[in-house]
Amino acid sequence: MKIKAAIDHMDLRRFRFWFQLSAFLLLVYGGRLAINLGTSLPTFSCGYNKSGTAGVCYLLPLQHQLAQPWERLFSPAGVMVLSGLGIFLLWFVALNKAWCGFICPLGTIQDWITALRKKMGIRYSTYTDEQFKKLSLIKYVFLLILIFVPLAIGGQFLSHDWGTPFCQLCPARMIIPLFNGDFSQWVIDFSSTGRMVLTALGMFITGLFLIGSFLKKRFFCFFCPMGAFHYIFSKLSIFKLKKEGDKCTVCGDCYRVCDMQIKPIADDVVSKDILMDDCILCLKCVASCPEQGALRVDILGKTVFESTKGGFVKRMGLEAKK
Amino acid sequence: MSTELPQHQVETSQQRHIRHQGMEASGVLDTVEKGFGGNPEAMQYFYDLFRDVYCEGIKPHPDKEMIGTMCVQIPDEIIHAAGGIPVRLCNGFYTDEEVGGDFMPAKSCSLVKASLGMLKSETNPYSDGIKSIINPTTCDQKKKAAGMMREMGYQVYDMELPPVKESEEGREYWRRSVRKFTHEVGKLTGKKVTRKNLKATIKQVGQAQLTYHRLNELRKNTPIPILGKDIFMVTNAYFFDDLTRWTAATEKLCTEIEARVAEGYNAAGRRSPRIVFTGSPPVFPNLKIPLMIEQADGVIVADETCSSNRLLNDMVSVDEWFMYDMVDAIADRYLKSCTCPIFTMNDDRIRRLIELVRTFKADGVIYQAFSGCSVYEMEQRSVAKAMEKEGIPMLYIETDYSPSGTGQLSTRIEAFMESLKVRGRQK
């Protein structure tokens, strides 16, 4: 009981900061200590960060595998795609989208950029409802690209120059290797049309990433195909974000602190499983909720963290001075 | 030099009004204070406060800039941050209602009439010190009252509130209202709202709310450690009392009630039905229905009214302690969780009621609507239907401030209590 109260009252901001920092160091520099977590990680642990990465983002091998010639892909040898997916799922099921909110190095970088903005006292930007609805679809477009472009390569409709298309567009490819002093990705590859288009777009998206995440909290996560991919499997996870609609007063505190502007977190009083496709499971909503038990995190059906008045008071700095 | 002749004193109408007001207030105070046994000692602060303000005419905030507010949606935090003292003008005096009757149609809300009457006759100890009034565009009667208050010479600030709170448009509209208000309130008080001040007042109001929560939580206990009439006195005092003093007095009360809970003290009868009170707000001295309920051996364990729970329940949550985020956070708290019937939908209110009945282990709901308070009258049907579906007994009472006709009301309330007791026995 004491432990539970301590968790419910924790300073989530600080906990996340240190957790994210540790995860960042592990994933970005762990390779130097010969740590190898495989190639099916459900987070942007970028494979282009060759000198430091402690494991590889699943989207890289996935795109490689899907680009095999069709006769191989659709033969018993194609099972290897499934085995990669299986390992991805094992990783994912354990933590669900908390991979985004607590581990993803690219997410962490965005949070650091946000911290910088906050230091400068500049207001964050938000999308309007209509913008949100439209932009929210972009991640599915990326997901389709990263599945169907490789398939088209395997079917010989496209040349290999279009290989690993999403990685070429992803800002992680350019940004994460920087932390190991590797600038090799900061080029536009003129070797072929495909490479040129992809790397130029990638350069553009990286620029957008840097500006965007300064103005908008978790700017890129909104477009992240990994998030969309996660969502397909999120129901399988043992890690759940739950809501008790009856206890909710719809005060909107959770919605307002949400980096991803997820409105149903406040307005939906019917759904029990409140994880949405844009969610990064950062748990800020749970921490900001003043209603006892209205929002909670369950692991294997056991509540590990829930909204409490005491926790709210502590995090808001409202404790009475004795 | 002329010699002063001894003059025969004739009571002016204002003096008479004040005398009537004092009589009305002290009558109710006597009932609250002496009509029930076992008052918590810490309640004395509140009884004395009401006696001072309403019977003795002692100003609660001498030489401070008081800003009148007309509804629960006006952000106290912002007024405090601008160095003003928010004073809620929603008034409960029958004496004032009679004066206010001149302004409004016969079938209109007692509360609005009484508030207008108080402002017209400048008889409340705080009303003559108030120059500026913040009036949110809530119900039609409050909206139209703004014009009349202007006519009386008050400076009225219309604070625009949307009629729909679910939509993003409504939320943005209200945020703009609040941002504008944050900017403008400084002109009324002569002090700008700064980041530092606002942060401090958010915490100050938050602490007051927290103290209220602590008190309210204690009402979940069986046996019930404190009567509802005392809670209404506490929350009504929040309308005008000094924030720090109020918080300290309420904390003291909490400590005392906690001790009562520890020893299993019962403030009500052995089988008193537990009641959730909802509808038009009881405002001192119009505690008619709450007092009748508790005189009929009921006990109010929770409420869903803008003079009590709705006033203090929901708290501001800030993510980034800058003006941009604090002001928006305040705006959201006053709009999104508000269960005022002026909004198009009342699902939230129904959900809140059901949740209150459940968590406070209530036996029934009593719904008060001031006759002429059309929004509460109109919501009655949907609430009654929802309560029926949940199997929660509800009594709907249409009433006003007039002291007559209480016999019939108390008979109905007593019958309701009896039926709840019978129901309790059968369970």
Explain this structure to me?
The complex is a heterodimer of chains A (322) and B (427). Chain A is mainly alpha-helical and 322 residues long. Chain A has helices spanning 2-8, 12-29, 59-66, 70-73, 79-95, 98-103, 105-119, 129-135, 138-154, 165-169, 171-175, 193-215, 225-233, 253-257, 264-267, 284-288, 309-315, and strands spanning 239-243, 295-299, 302-306. Chain A has two domains: 2-231, no CATH class; 238-315, Alpha-Beta Plaits (2-Layer Sandwich), CATH 3.30.70. In chain A, strands 1-2-3 form a three-stranded antiparallel sheet. The two termini of chain A are 25 Å apart. Helices cover 52% and strands 10% of the residues of chain B. Chain B has helices spanning 13-34, 44-55, 76-81, 94-100, 110-121, 140-151, 168-189, 195-218, 228-237, 243-262, 288-295, 309-312, 323-336, 347-359, 374-390, 406-426, and strands at 66-69, 85-88, 132-136, 155-159, 274-279, 299-304, 364-370, 394-399. In chain B, the strands form two sheets. Chain B has a four-stranded parallel sheet with strand order 2-1-3-4, sandwiched between helices. Chain B has a four-stranded parallel sheet with strand order 6-5-7-8, sandwiched between helices. In chain B, helix 6 links the parallel strand 3 (132-136) and strand 4. In chain B, helix 7 (168-189) packs across helix 13. The chains are: A mainly alpha (322), B alpha/beta (427). The A-B interface holds A 118, 121, 123-124, 128-129, 245-247, 249-253, 255-257, 263, 266-267, 269, 284, 288-290, 309, 312-313, 316-318, 320 and B 166, 168, 171, 203, 206-207, 210, 213, 251, 313-320, 322, 324-325, 328-329, 332-333, 335-337, 348, 351-352, 354-355, 358.
The biggest sheet of chain A, with number of strands, parallel, antiparallel or mixed sense and barrel status, is:
3 strands, antiparallel
- Compressed to H and E, one letter per element, the order of chain A equals HHHHHHHHHHHHHEHHHEEH
Total DSSP E strands of chain A: 3
Spans of chain A with pLDDT under 50 lasting ≥5 residues?
A: none
Element-by-element helix/strand order of chain B: HHEHEHHEHEHHHHEHEHHHEHEH
Radius of gyration of chain A: 20 Å
Strand residues, percent of chain A:
under 5%
User: Major sheet of chain B: size, sense and barrel closure?
Assistant: 4 strands, parallel
Whole-number tally of structural domains of chain B: 1
Oligomer: heterodimer
Gross morphology of chain B is: globular
How many helices of chain B does DSSP assign?
16
Strand order of the largest sheet of chain A: 1-2-3
Mean pLDDT of chain B: 93
How much helix, percentage-wise, in residues of chain A? Answer: 40-55%
- The strand order across the widest sheet of chain B is 2-1-3-4
Q: Note the gap between the termini of chain B.
A: 85 Å
Fraction in beta strands of chain B = 5-15%
User: How many runs of DSSP E, i.e. beta strands of chain B?
Assistant: 8
